Amino acid sequence: MLKLSVAGNVVVRPLRGGLSPILRVTTKSDYPFPLRKQSALLLDDLTDSVADGFGAVLARGGSEQGAEPEANVLILAPDLHYLADGDVIKISPDGRIRTIYRQAGRGVSLLVTERCNSFCLMCSQPPRDVDDDYLIDDYLRAIPLFDRSTREIGITGGEPTLLGDRLFALLRTLKSYLPETAVHVLTNGRTSSDPTIAEQFARLKHPDLMLGIPLYSDISSIHDFVVQADGAYDETLRGIINLKRYGVQVELRVVIHQQTYARLANLAAFITRNLQFVDHVALMGLELMGFARSNIDALWVDPLEYQQELVEATLTLARAGIKTSIYNHQLCLLNPSIRSFSVKSISDWKNEYMPECSGCSLKPECGGFFSSASLRRSPNIRAKLVA
Prior knowledge:
The protein is an alpha/beta fold. It is 23% helix and 19% strand. It is built from 10 helices and 18 strands. The protein has an 8-stranded mixed sheet. An 8-stranded parallel sheet has the order 9-10-11-12-13-14-15-16, covered by helices on one side. It is globular, with a radius of gyration of 23 Å.
């Protein structure tokens, strides 16, 4: 598992200026001089010759002897040795480095707030009522440094729409600097029950924007229990309908666990009857982080136990012409009839495979595990070996 925020870097030279720099990493010491101020030169060893003018100099080892006297110089902690050309980082005065963007990563995710109006039983990012507006400020400075070829950027929280106009400023910035990059916003959909919020998403006229909205049951009391908010089911449905009325792409996300799997097929039938206009449905495995870890005994179920419900739900949606995917599941646990719906969806920085997977012929196509699966996973994981 890669660490995206790391302290303990050796600050060889103190950082200059009051504003923590946000820089694009380069290994090219002959980088064009006008671009150096917004760049961090990455070296294997500080004894290498260091050109001047860079916003910072990063090294995986060595001493300060090769650095220019005025350079911002840090020796990286081992957890940050993965940094490479094109990555975008923020350096705090104490030497902490936060990786905002990884060019080689499978998907880019921007956490925009920890505040939320729901309290989901299995939330992997438990909400906190904190002032985290600085996150948007950081992203507005960082996005111009992202590579134009980035395929997709995810916006997550907390609940991003609680940021109001700040969220839409971020989305406009993404559209301006990365016009060919898909943007996927994870939202509970509740604020879009106000038509003016849904209309704001439409007014962006983003060429490839989708909102991922959770729907956990065809019964309101089950959904409201899972999200721990009375009336959330009604708000969510009205939000989905409002967004589609304005032509915004909507994905329904269903996290499968003890509280949701029994009515999975019923939910699929409900969607085909009432929400067939949605653009995608994702049937998702559980990530054992945050509240899911605390509530594990009320949530955990071996995926092998709900295969009948998952097969029926998947095929019901597919037969209705709704694009359907299965996320966060291991192929060896999926019924062969629905393996083709499985997608490698876990972010590469928290994606792992277990010892049981050694030599498995399905591994190249398998989604693997969240790093948190070390807490609990199916005892039925088996490598499929090619004779």
